[in-house]
Amino acid sequence: MKKNQTTIVSSAKACTWRHFDNKAYSAFRSISREVRIGVLAVATLASAGMAEASVAVDATQVSTVSEDGFSRELNELEVTGSLAPINANQAARIVTTIGREEIAQSAAQSVNDLLKLALGVDVRQRGAFGVQTDISIDGGSFDQVTILLNGVNIGSPQTGHLSADFPVSINDIIRIEVLVGAASRSVGGSSFSGAVNIVTRPDAQNHVTVNAQGGQYGTFGGGAQVAAGSGVVRNQFSVEYRRSDGATQNSAFKRGNAFYQGSYSGEEVNVDWQLGYSNQDYGANTFYSAAYPNQHEQNTRYFVALKASTKGKIKFEPTIYWTRSTDHFELIHGSNVGENFHRSDVYGGRLNSYFNWAAGTTSFGAEVRNEGILSTNLGRPLEESEYVKIPGKDGFYNKRDNRTNVSYFAEHNILLKDFTLSMGVVANMNTALDSRFRWYPGVDLSCRPADGWRLSASWNMAFRMPTFTDLYYKSPTTEGNIGLKPEKTQNVIVAARYQSAPFCATLRGFYHHGVDMIDWVMYAADDIYHSANFRLNNLGAEVTTDINFANIFSNQNVLQTLSLGYTYIHQTRHDNQEIFKSNYALDYLRHKFTARLSHRIFGPLSATWNLRWQDRLGGYLEYVDAKPTGNLVEYKPYAVLDLKLQFVKPRYELWVSANNLTDHTYHDFGNIPQPGLWIMAGGSYRFNF
Fold it and tell me: Whole-model pTM?
């Protein structure tokens, strides 16, 4: 379908617009029935605001004929901003979106690899393929990011180290959304420096897809996806398994996951449900200290969620969910020295509601989230009669902790032709503190002074409770602090964007004022790490440019897309006590540059190049033969170039990828060299029925 076409597909119950003409507000105000927004460019979607699940894919399909004469199915998209639906042109906040096409073209082997493409995101790896990964945004820590799966918070209260253990395959994902900045009032309290939303949806076409891949270092894997259903009910199930001997010392892994998602679309209500399972067993190379190079870990996660959405004048969106994570950590693999067992359970329920009236759109709701942990290391000691047996092991959980977070939120959006104002507040109470509610407000606004231009600004407050690891963890090299205070921030973001059919450019600046921030620090070279509070301010700027050559020339042009981006961050720490070494907060990316180029080679064969250059501040304590030298080594800048070749046909795909094409040695964490050149190849085949 050409972008200059305007096609309307209508029925008795819905009207679907296939073209955005920048006057969508008139349609929304003049048509008293459900309106679906059809084909949107990635640049348009990137400007959408995000709430619980800011973008979902509707079951309606559009049949188009591609250049090679094959009929393809394109998903309809429903864009939702803030706590209530707002069309993309009127949204007050900017969201970075990694779409399905970018996912397919990248050389990424995991969700974490994909997030490296997002400018404001810092992805630090200890192992390849998303194993042992920390994700942070705008110079924050890995504990300050909310991880959402279809709008449901799947973050771990035990530690942010486990939050990136996703129960979905990269093949399930239709998009990844990255919201930068504090978002407690819309996403939840843990959204301190930003949020990452993984969006999946059952395919509207019944099919079975199988895939397989293999490469260097004994790496291989495979998976399958089945989508089935008819009428108002859709189902999709996927499984995946991967293993590798690892390219560096003690980095071998085995991981598997299974994911089921279903949906029901009725006249009065839509219902979505999802179940996920993941298990990974891996060599945790110097996970907590280079003094112990033979660490090992096994993580298992179970996830269930149910969400509904009514269609009356006042819309209600109730959600309930449960996540269980188990963690078996060995400081020395095969030994019980420093061995830990943990089991965390999170139960939650959220009710969001909204309605439209003459003064705009008003949203309100509440959320209850209970976080509990059983452990051999984290929590308050139990009486022996209260010990809980560890399944399949000889030991017992002998410590426990539990806390409940209750929040009430409200938001109002004023939507005018060239101006949007969004104001909201969340009142939050946590039983681990006291019974007092604390208020965290926020204001977002945007204006559109001319065609293609959009200016926005926001001010938001947020908070974050310490993880159970921050509070309690004890090992030969680390010591938690039960007296830690919750983190608090005030955050200001200003942005300008210009967008036309072939071109999009964004300039963003931000300032974060942090109080009682949490870090793990050493006070001397021979000290262990302690968790402590301090004050930290972040100041940064970001610029991105996207060019779609197909919109300038034609789809047959050799060059397809080019994306360039650069981020700069400066931090100032305020602390009454001098420190020798920061383990996380001050090891941030001062500079990050990304470039992405996609081009045709011939026919269905294409190539995508991804370049990432990073300069990290801070350093690491040098170890030689598992013994500290007492020297701090500064992180060195590095560049990584990835390449993916794709041969794509309607029913099958073949690909070859080369990560770290220049075979460059670099470090995301001290004393853990990252893999050099890693070549993989694979393919998939789809059977429609």
Answer: 0.86
